[in-house]
Amino acid sequence: MGKIGVALTLAGTAALLPGCYPEAAACPAIGHIAGVSLSVAAGYADQVGTLRLKACQDGTCTEKDLDLHPGAVAVDQGCTPDGVCSATSSPDGTLLGSIELPTLSESPLEATVSGTSPSGTALPTRTLTFTPRGDYPYGEQCGRVISAAVSLDEDGLSQT
């Protein structure tokens, strides 16, 4: 085999080498904020004027008044015959807010919610101790995401 044959053999072998390694999966370029999200149930939202959330984990507490905004659900609008699908957002009567924390781990977290009604009377103070959940929503190659979410209704706080 001449020099040209060896060169072509080496070039062909080099072209096949990437197929011997698993292809890297793309991870979304989405940042994740360490914090606690709060959802006020639709049946209780009209009784809420303001809310304050205090979250304590690993000896560190963060507290702030929540900026509440209306929640929504996605409504499927179907697909066209050529495969183009769409959805729209529709208000669902809930209220949403969140608080950012310096860090978030899977150790127990204590959330305390206080607030006032639209008329200014105090709402009952509610406290829940729960464990934030870790998951790999984009696959293990993209890293673990820890989330903490609670829901408030007339019965109190619950983990969502």
List the helices and strands and how they pair.
Elements: H1 3-16, E1 35-40, H2 42-45, E2 50-57, E3 60-65, E4 69-79, E5 85-100, E6 109-116, E7 126-130, E8 133-135, E9 145-153, E10 156-159
Please summarize what this structure is.
This protein is mostly beta strands. It contains two helices and ten strands; from the N terminus they run αβαβββββββββ.
Description:
Strand 9 (145-153) and strand 10 form a beta hairpin. It contains 2 helices and 10 strands, in the order H-E-H-E-E-E-E-E-E-E-E-E. Helix content is 11%, strand content 48%. It is flat and about 55 Å long. It is mainly β and 160 residues long. The model has no long low-confidence stretch (mean pLDDT 88). The longest helix is centred in the first third of the chain and has 14 residues, at 3-16.
The string of secondary-structure elements, in order, is HEHEEEEEEEEE
Shape: flat
Structural class of the helices, strands and pairings? Answer: mainly beta
Largest sheet: 6 strands, mixed
Give the rounded overall mean pLDDT.
88
- Share of helix, binned: 10-25%
Strand content: over 45%
Instruction: Specify Rg, calculated over alpha carbons.
Output: 25 Å
List low-confidence stretches: none
Helical run tally: 2
How far is it from the N-terminal to the C-terminal residue, by CA? 68 Å
User: How many beta-strand segments?
Assistant: 10
Notable characteristics:
single chain, 160 residues, mainly beta, six-stranded mixed β-sheet, four-stranded antiparallel β-sheet, 2 helices
